[in-house]
Amino acid sequence: MQFRRLWIALAAVLAVSFAVLGGVGYRAVRSAPPIPLAVVTPDGDTLFDGRTIQDGQNVWQSIGGQEVGTVWGHGAYVAPDWTADWLHRESLFILDRWAQQQGAAGFAQLGIEQQGALRARLRAEMRHNSYDPATGRITIPPVRAQAFEALEKHYADVFGNGRDAYAIPKGSLSDPAQQRQMAAFFWWTAWAAATQRPGESVSYTSNWPHEPLVGNNLTGDAIVWSVISFVLLLAGIGGMVWYFGAQQHGPAPERLPQRDPLLGLKPTPSQRATVKYFFTVAALLVVQVGMGALTAHYGVEGSGFYGIPLDRWLPYAVTRTWHLQLGLFWIATSWLATGLFVAPAVSGVEPKGQRMGVNLLYAALLVVVAGSLTGEWMSIEHKLHANFFWFGTQGYEYLDLGRFWQILLFAGLVFWLWLMGRGLRPALARKDESHSLLVLFLVASVAIPLFYGAGLMYGQRSNLVTAEYWRWWVVHLWVEGFFEVFATVVIAFLFARLKLLSVRTATSSVLFSTIIFLSGGIIGTFHHLYFSGMPDFVLALGATFSALEVVPLVLIGFEAWQNIRLARAREPGTSWVGAYKWPIYFFVAVAFWNFVGAGLFGFLINPPVALYFMQGLNTTPVHGHTALFGVYGMLGIGLMLFCLRALRPGLAWKDRPLAVSFWAINLGLSLMVLLSLLPIGLMQAWASVEYGTWYARSSEFLQTGLMDHLRWMRMIGDTIFAFGVVVLGWFVLGLATGHSYDRTAVVEEGEWHARPPALRRAGD
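Below the sequence we write its predicted structure tokens.
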């Protein structure tokens, strides 16, 4: 009852937020750009039908989808955005054809007045919505049909013969029928991007991409709601400062215990069974970084790796798919294993058969990881054909794995939830002071399989708007939302278990931070969907609530300083806390990157006025790397180290490898962003504002000498980062072999002492 107000506030936030998210999503999906029954000319000739568009979407998905360029700004960054590229090329073709009808060699040879007249004619034609709901047809003039035929040949050449500048290998798509189908899908995305919604003056994608030739410019709504988001951010910061200022005269922090509370406790069988999860985490992390290095290198050498024609076996689409999927796998594995480790520690009871359940879940994890990665490679290499969606790749970023593997993973998460529930049940029945924290722990655990299940809500032939809507439920609400709530509760439990934090303080802090975070975070999902075929009012919701997401991050330094204070504890009899220094320091890194990666770099691109020009540029991976790895990756590493430390609290670690790893990873991540990704992204943003999105993503702009130098500069940060990851992997491996333990130290009565040489025995 002491936390009743906080629980009521949390329930209200969840109810209102999901009502808005669901209601707006329902309306948005119903008003999505229509897939016509046919695209015809005024003479009645059919250019292609709606089935061709849907088949083309499936062809695009099967060869990597969003891992080969972007559509509507979402996906990979080496190849063009196919929407912006098609729209610009089609516009130039039409202008040149009209100019030739006036006797000129091309549009560039016309006078200024003639060019202006043709531009106005082009805008009127491209923005006119000729979709007839009664017949389900889109009628286009002959010149647009001619443009389609010409561009179909262009893209057939791109995907048939390959393009080093796009990291697209020869033979990526060789079937003429499939080439035409994919061209039809690209045409539809460009049609939706330029065509005005019925009764409105903006296109289906709110005038994205920026393309002056067709009148796609920043809207007034985008500017107004961006300004409002800035004001809300400042107001929210002021409110948070006032709140924390009011807490300054609260109770003094608890005195640290004189010895490690975990000393003398024997790990349960299921806790020991989680160790292999953490070894797998370290292995997947190392492999993921290797895939990331290959993916980055394809940006400067599109067909190989220092002369080795690697794209014959591992094309860019595969390495980037694996890079993202492995990242999600190892981070999620670390967090799930931490939950399995914490459950019996909280309840003090291990249910019968819990160890077997943990082992079965681990085996299922290996099957999903190996099966999904193999299927993705087979799909992109054209070995699965019609089965690509189920056993290969869905083609959507972060949800690349085939639907069969996705269902298995969902089932595994439900099984994990069952293991968590049976492990926590004895503690929930006690109704002691930790009851509220336990309930929040269980709620967050339920949310993990629940929101991953949102990825099952679209089908193989769903409208792209529907797929994007549900995809961001998974990426934003699952990865960025409730997994973070779960991890926050886990950290609170770990600190409370070590008596570094009282249960009451931990409970109130976690409940409050969860309320503040979810108040903006749930509806803030819409900031990913400004220009993805959603109605224009999504700009208002996404802009305002995504600004509120940043508010709690501005005072994240309080959390960081609290953790640093704990890690540096030097009170008499508390040197045992030093054994947890590096796990805690990784939590400090989480706080730092939460502010920088999620806060600063996130808000850099979140306001509509910024994202309009920056969507699909390298400013997005700036935010992606510093938030996904900087926050969730660091958190996964910290949780892994904390659990491994707690398993054998009486043995000292060799701290130097962890120190080297910690600073190398953080320094490398910083240099990767500051020396390469951020400068490239800002220069692309200038090009997007000045000339249009197509130019910012074009090979003419990206394959210049300066851009090549900036991409090569990334090697500095990448090398330091990779070195830190390898050292971390070596250290974790050493916990299995024994070489990471310091046999010269022993803990006695909570203090670390040098061990006499005669007692230094291997395995002691």
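The two ends are 48 Å apart (CA to CA).
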